[in-house]
Amino acid sequence: xxxxxxxxxxxxxxxxxxxxxxxxxxxxxxxxxxxxxxxxxxxxxxxxxxxxxxxxxxxxxxxxxxxxxxxxxxxxxxxxxxxxxxxxxxxxxxxxxxxxxxxxxxxxxxxxxxxxxxxxxxxxxxxxxxxxxxxxxxxxxxxxxxxxxxxxxx
Length: 154
Fold this sequence. Notes:
The chain is mainly α and about 150 residues long. It has helices at about 5-30, 35-50, 65-90, 95-115, 130-150. About 70% of the residues lie in helices and about 0% in strands.
């Protein structure tokens, strides 16, 4: 199956932005934990490269942590785009969106249960908002890929 790598990369970036926005909105509406929960999750992610010394408490803003967390977030988002692209290159939009939902669920289970074997600190992020965000990520990965990989008419 041939893929459009540029569309896969762009879809990964788009999905990373959309999912982060969705998570921020869900935190804002359903918790009173902003901005500390956002800083906490940035520290959880940055600790993958920087080590556990950056883990909270306190869950405060730090530029280096935010830059490293953002880098990891978008590299993973792009990688996920490149993984999903061949799986949805042929089906139509609806099937691709369903595949995105399933892909988001698989990423959630992988990240929140599999990766915690290596990075146990992620277990604190196991909640319905993180699950919903992964589903949003999967859909917002599939839709832009399908739209961006369409053949251009002359």
